[in-house]
Amino acid sequence: MRIKSFTLFLFLLALLSVTDSFAQIRPRQKPGQRATPTNPAQQNPQRTQQQQPNSSGQDTARVKKPGSILDDTTKALYGPKTTLRLYENDVLEGIYREQRIDTTIQNMQNQRYWFQDTAFYQHLGNIGTASQPLLYKLPTRIGARFGKNAFDRYAYNPDKINYYDTRSPYSHLYYVQGQRGEQVFEVIYARNITERFNFGVAYKIIATDKQFGSTSLRDDGLIDNQAVKAFTHYRSKNDKYNLFSNYTHLNHEQIETGGVKPADTDDTPDSLFTYQNELVFLEQAVTDEIRHNYHLLHMLKIVGENLKAYHRFDWRKQNTTYRDDALPEKVDSLRNFYPEEFYSSARTLDKTNYREFENEFGLSGNTSISYYKAYIKQRNSKIDYSAIQTINPDTSAIGAIVSEDRVENQVFVGGMLRFNYQDKYLLFGEGEYQLVDNYRLQAGARFKGLEFIQSRVRQSPSLLEQRLISNHFIWDRSNFKTTITDQSRASLRQQFGTRLFLKLSGAYTNISRLVVYGTDAEPIQLTGNQRLLEAQFANHLRLGSIHFENFINYTNTDEAPAVRIPEWLVNSKLYFQGYIFKNALFTQIGVEMNLPTGYKADAYMPVTQQFYLQDNFTTKTYPVFDVFLTADIKTVNVFVKIAHANYDLWEPGYYETPDYPGLRRSLTFGIKWMFFD
C-alpha cells in the first residue's frame, strides 16, 4: 500500500483524534513505590530529549472528571511528561529509568533519522533501497546467522523496542513526502490497560519512485515497504515479575534495475544523468523479503535486585525471493548483467528461507556499584535454498525445483561483569562462547569522560557465505575458516560549560581471514590481515542562538584493500535555533552538508542482496547540501527542506553506488503530530 494523497492521512488523523473518549486517567505511581534503584544512574535518570518549551504537562493539576484532560485553569494534564518510555534491558540490569518520549525537532529533517538505524549508510540512491554501513562496524553476533542484511535498516529491531508507560492513551502520526516520490509514514498507538500493563502497536510505510529508467513492472514504483510492531509490558504488583514481549513484521519489495546502462561505448558515468531517459540493465526483476519476529523476555526476582532469573525467547523467520521474468538478451554470447544461468535462460525464481529459534536462560543481579549476568543459550536454525529449472533452458515452463537445506543446532554460554561508581568510573567485561568454535570477548574501563575498550571476535562465515543455490550463482564454501577480529578503541568526551561539547575517538582494527564478496560477486576468504586505523571528531558549538555541529571520520585503509570506506567523511550543520515571530514559534533554520571523499565503492548484486568488491569505478568527492527549516508548534513538529540543494550547480550529479545515481534536488515536507488523549 502506498500513500498517493492526503486522504488516508486525514482518515487516520481523524481516527486517532477520537481516542479521547477512551482516555484513561490514573495517578502516576510515585518513584518510591517501585523497586529501590540500586544503580547510580537510577538516582539521576538522564533524559534523551531536550527540554523544549512546548513539551510540558502539569502533573499536579486537579482533574475535573474522569476522561477530562484539562484542569480548572484549562491547563493540559497530560503530555510528554506523563508519557514515558522504558527499555527491557534497563529493567534486566536494575535500571528503572523511564524516559520521556522524544518531542524535539533535532535532526527531524535528516534522512538518517527517518529509520531505525541512524548510522551512515551506502545505498542505491534513494530511501528504502538496499544498504550497508558506510563505516566499519565491529561484528557482534557469533554462531549461525543468515547473512542477508540489506534491508535491516528498515525493519523494527525486536531487541531495541521502547515500551510505554502512559497516564492517558498516546499516539503519533509521522509523515514525510518528497518531491521525487519519497514517502515515509508511521502511526503509533500505546496505552496502559491497567496501572501495570501496557500495550502498543505501530505501522510504518516506506515508499519511493524510480529516478532513472522505466520498466513494465509496477509502473514507477521502486520501493514498497510495510512494517508492523505490536508490543506489551507487564509488571506484577510487588515488582517481582516483569514481562516484555513484541512481534515485528517486515514486508519489503524492491524493484531491481541493476543501475543505469550505457547506451553505447561513448557513454561515460558523467553522461548518464538524464534519469528517466536512461536505460537500465534489468527490465522485470524484483526482490521480495518477508520477516516475522517474536520476542519475549521475562524475569523474576529471587532475592530482590541481588538475584534475578530470566528467560529470553526469539523466533525469527526471513524469506527472500528474487524473480526476473525477462532475463537480458545475450550480447556476443555474454549476458549484460548476470554471470551465468544454470537452470533457465528465460526466467529466474530463486527463494531462500531462513528460520531460527533461540532460548536463553540466565541469572543476573545488581547492587549500587555492580552488575553481573550469566546465561546459557541454545540456537536452532534452518536454511532452505531453491531455484526453478525450466523444461527447456529458453522456455518459461517449470520442469523442476532444485532445492537444498541445512540445519544448525548450537549452544552458547556467556556472561557480563560490571563495576561502577557514581556513573563516572566504570570497569566491565563480557564474553560469549559458542561450543566449540566461535567466541566474543570485550573489556573496558571509563574514567569520567575517558574510555578504553578492547574487543576480540572469532566468527564463522554466515550460512549464505558458506552455501548458495540459485539460477545465477552456485557455491560451496564449507571449507572457509573463522574470521578473527581484534579492535582497540579509545574515546574522550568533554563538556565545556553550556557552549561546547567535544568528542574524540580512535580505533585500530586487525582482521584475520576476512570473508568478502569478490569482484565476481561470490564470497572469498582473504589470506593475511586487513588493518584499519580510524579517528573521529565530533563537536557541538553554541554561540547564543547559533549552533555549529560537526562529525568528521578518518579511515586509513592502506593495509586493508578489501575494506572499501571513504578516507574522509564529513557531516556539518550550521543553524539558528530559537523563537521567531515574537516568541510565537520555536524553530531551527539552517544548512547541512554531507561529504564523503571519493573511493572505490562496493557494487551491488540483487540476486544475492550483497555488496561486492569492484575496481573499475571511483566515486567523486562531492558534497550534498540540504537547506532546512523545522518548527515546534505545541504537539506538532514540522520541517521543510530542499534536499541536495546544490544539484546540477557544478556537477551533473553523483553516484551513491556504482551505476546508481544519487537523488536529485527534492523539496521535502515532514510532520509529526502527537496526541496525549
TrEMBL record:
Residues 27-66 are annotated as: Disordered. The keyword Signal applies. Residues 1-23 form the signal peptide. Residues 35-54 have a biased composition (Low complexity). Keywords: Signal. It comes from the Bacteria. InterPro entries: Porin_10. Pfam families: Porin_10. This is Porin.
